[in-house]
Amino acid sequence: MTDPATSAWHVSKSNPVRDLPLHDLAGFTHRWVDADGVRLHAVEGGRPTGLAVVLLAGFPQTWWAWRRVMPSLADRFRVVAIDLPGQGHSERPERSYDTHTVAAHVHAAVKALGVPTYWLVAHDIGAWVAFSLALKFESQLRGVALLDAGIPGITLPDAIPTDPDRAWKTWHFAFHLVPDLPETLLAGRERDYVGWFLKTKALSPNTFDDAELDHYAAAVAVDGGLRASLAYYRDAAESARKNHEALKRQHLTVPILGISSSHGSIPDMAASISPWADDATGVVVPDAGHFIPDEQPEAVAAAIADFIVDGD
């Protein structure tokens, strides 16, 4: 249950990204949390006394990626979707975006919301952060579900394939690393760029409507969002290094669920994670590409609920 004293100090309605319109979701409340010096945006709802589920989205999305999953979980769980630093309505700090640094901010946000232990569910770059968070704060996690993500040093290939049939899935990792050039080419063209990812990597190009494309493009374009988005990739080598350093000392013992899809980037998340985790299981969601929560929200919600019930 939320601690009123903790919340009074750390939770506010002060939005640091005022030029990006807010989307409301019935039954959920917007909050901004002081997370060790970075204000993070959280959207909270569901059962206040239920088991807590924390959701993290990836590039080029925001918490809104979970909007079709959250209501299905809210009947049974306390649901908190958090925008990562630099994402959505969270602050865009001028500091490191390696996933261990970001993980510490996310965990601080969850603690500020009065959540002592929680289930963590994360997609894409959110899964990068979730893996590192599990290495740092495993004792406060009940379980971690990771959706279709090439995690630096873990499930991300060391080399970008040159085969055109595969290269389109990962070419941007190298492009985002180039200093200055992505900013030069993408400034003012964020909608075209974001739209390519959302249309091409989903199984159906009609998964996202124009309003969704507009929202995600605006989130990347506003208040340093592009810089922050690129920073996750530019700090990926440091993320991988810190992951490897942590894994020299420990394996993950918290239950891990790998959620893959029929047409995603990582065919078997569980198998990719299992060398570093003692308890890794997996499911494959049919009829979906990379953006599984948008494409098959009912299947994702069911997989999460089953994972929690089986593990609790």
User: How would you spell out the order of helices and strands?
Assistant: HEEEEHEHEHEHHHHHHHEHEHH
Provide the residue-averaged pLDDT: 93
Biggest sheet details: 9 strands, mixed
- Helicity, in percent? 40-55%
Number of strands: 9
Residue windows where pLDDT falls under 50 for at least 5 positions: 1-9
Give the terminus-to-terminus CA distance.
Answer: 17 Å
- Evaluate the radius of gyration: 18 Å
Put simply, the count of helices is 14
The order of strands across the largest sheet is 1-2-3-5-4-6-7-8-9
Helix- and strand-based class?
Answer: alpha/beta
Beta-strand residue percentage: 15-25%
The general outline is globular
Structure description:
The chain contains 14 helices and nine strands. The protein has a nine-stranded mixed sheet with strand order 1-2-3-5-4-6-7-8-9, sandwiched between helices. The chain is globular, with a radius of gyration of 18 Å. It has helices spanning about 5-10, 70-75, 100-110, 125-135, 165, 170-175, 180-185, 190-200, 210-220, 225-235, 235-250, 270-275, 290-295, 295-310, and strands at about 10, 30-35, 40-45, 50-55, 80, 120-125, 140-145, 255-260, 280-285. Strand 4 (about 50-55), helix 2 (about 70-75) and strand 5 (about 80) form a beta-alpha-beta unit. The longest helix is centred in the last third of the chain and has 15 residues, at about 295-310. With about 300 residues, the protein is α/β, with parallel strands linked by helices. Helix 4 packs parallel to helix 11, helix 6 (about 170-175) packs across helix 10 (about 225-235) and helix 8 (about 190-200) packs across helix 9.
